[in-house]
Design brief:
- With 205 residues, this protein is mostly helical.
- The protein folds into two domains: 91 residues, Serine Threonine Protein Phosphatase 5, Tetratricopeptide repeat, CATH 1.25.40; 74 residues.
- The chain is 80% helix and 0% strand.
- The chain contains eleven helices and no strands.
- Helix 1 packs across helix 10, helix 4 packs antiparallel against helix 5 and helix 7 runs parallel beside helix 9.
- The longest helix is centred in the first third of the chain and has 23 residues.
Length: 205
């Protein structure tokens, strides 16, 4: 029942929104990416503003081009060594590339800069699940539940589903996903909600 609900109700809506977002991607961003890639090939990337790096990283993540995104984030870190956001993004990309130990190293640097950033804990929980340290992963999420907002709740539930997946407990995985969908739907009815691409990626795994 849960699986039917997710696939028949949620995915069509998300897939349509994802396609619509791609269609609406403006020409300026396409030109930005093209310009970056041309300069990258020539080894002449030069200085870029932070917002440009974030735009490039979002583009490559949307396209699931994680290796290319890693190249971009390395340039960003070289320019902005003390911005924890870029280390967090790098950690997420490394996890998506199954480079768990490297991801944890990047998280450690991010944590030294922003020790109370919740996304660091979420990524660490995922990494622990990959390493089959499930008790540690659950302890991390238990701490995150303290004072969690609705938006935090969706992210924590997605992380829980990730842990259950690696434990091969697929019923609990889909239970967590369905709860995340319901909470996010309630938030969207109030004009809020999380980035649905994360839920798309989780459901499509």
């Amino acid at each position: 029942m849960i699986i039917v609900y997710i696939y028949t109700v949620f995915i069509p809506q998300l897939s349509y929104q994802h396609m619509e977002n791609k269609i609406k991607r403006d020409l300026a961003l396409i030109n930005l990416v093209s310009d970056f890639e041309s300069k990258f090939e020539l080894g002449e990337v030069g200085y870029l503003e932070e917002r440009v790096y974030f735009q490039l990283l979002e583009f490559y993540e949307d396209e699931y081009l994680f290796e290319k995104a890693l190249e971009v984030v390395d340039y960003a870190i070289e320019q902005f060594k003390y911005r924890s956001e870029f280390y967090i993004i790098k950690s997420r990309l490394l996890l998506n590339c199954s480079k768990t130990d490297e991801s944890l190293k990047s998280l450690s640097i991010a944590e030294s800069m922003a020790p109370f950033e919740r996304e660091i804990s979420l990524l660490k929980a995922r990494a622990m699940a990959i390493k089959k340290q499930f008790a540690t992963a659950r302890d991390i999420l238990d701490d995150l539940w303290i004072g969690a907002t609705q938006s935090d709740t969706v992210e924590i539930l997605l992380a829980e589903s990730y842990i259950h997946e690696h434990m091969k407990d697929y019923n609990e995985m889909y239970n967590a996903l369905s709860k995340a969908v319901l909470v996010d739907s309630k938030m969207r009815s109030n004009g809020k909600g999380v980035d649905q691409r994360r839920i798309i990626q989780k459901i499509r795994r």
